[in-house]
Amino acid sequence: MLGDSITTFDQADMTQQLGKDYKLTISGNYGKTVEEVIPEAKVVSTRTYDQVIINLGTNDSIGNLPTASSMEFLKQMISMFPDAKCIHLVNINENMVDIANGQSVSAAARRFNKALDELVGTDQRLSIVDWNAETAATLNDKSPRWSTLTKDSVHPTEEGNRKLNALYADALLACDNPLGL
């Protein structure tokens, strides 16, 4: 599992929810973009993994980084795991607010998710973990609106972590049982 602060803050819950069924290696990288996690991915990729989850892109969107550049770094990261039978890419919450200035980052998040969907079509090992749909179903009444599964529109609450980890479990299980058996 490669991620940013969302992963960092979820490590204990993730280990509790998934650790009994899967041997986890978790690399949470607070505040980092896809590009900035490349060195960590190189270290993690020195071992062979059956499945990989990548939950990155939130900081790219908050920083309004060029989506094409983020996707190139993501492709580089994916290529580090040639033996993984499944690589699960977590899409990002499109109802985020930049914590620093209170402005919506929805447009950048939508661009990132659209590019992520296009990337999935390039490699049969890739799939989407749909965190965006989960958060979009639970919007509050603030302006701009954000998910009640998050504390600050970005970082999951305890319930948000449980829901996100359930999405991870579903993705991992689908790879283990591709025919639903």
Structural account:
This protein has helices at residues 5-18, 34-44, 58-62, 67-79, 106-120, 131-136, 158-176, and strands at residues 2-3, 27-28, 51-55, 86-90, 126-129. It is of the alpha/beta class and 181 residues long. The chain has a single domain (2-176), classed as Rossmann fold (3-Layer(aba) Sandwich). The protein has a five-stranded parallel beta sheet with strand order 2-1-3-4-5, sandwiched between helices. β4 (86-90), α5 and β5 (126-129) form a beta-alpha-beta unit. α2 runs parallel beside α4 (67-79) and α4 (67-79) packs parallel to α5 (106-120). The longest helix has 19 residues, at 158-176. The model has no long low-confidence stretch (mean pLDDT 94).
Level of helix content?
A: 40-55%
The shape, in one word, is globular
Euclidean distance between termini CA atoms = 25 Å
Secondary structure tally, helices: 7
Main sheet attributes: strand count, strand direction, barrel closure: 5 strands, parallel
Averaged pLDDT: 94
Placed side by side, the strands forming the largest sheet appear as 2-1-3-4-5
Q: Mind telling me the CATH superfamily name? A: SGNH hydrolase
Q: pLDDT under 50 segments (min length 5)?
A: none
The CATH topology label is Rossmann fold
Which CATH-level-2 architecture? Answer: 3-Layer(aba) Sandwich
Strand content: 5-15%
The top-level CATH class is: Alpha Beta
For the secondary structure, the number of strands is 5
How many domains, as an integer?
A: 1
Measured on Cα atoms, how large is the radius of gyration? 15 Å
Structural class: alpha/beta
SSE order, one letter for each helix or strand = EHEHEHHEHEHH
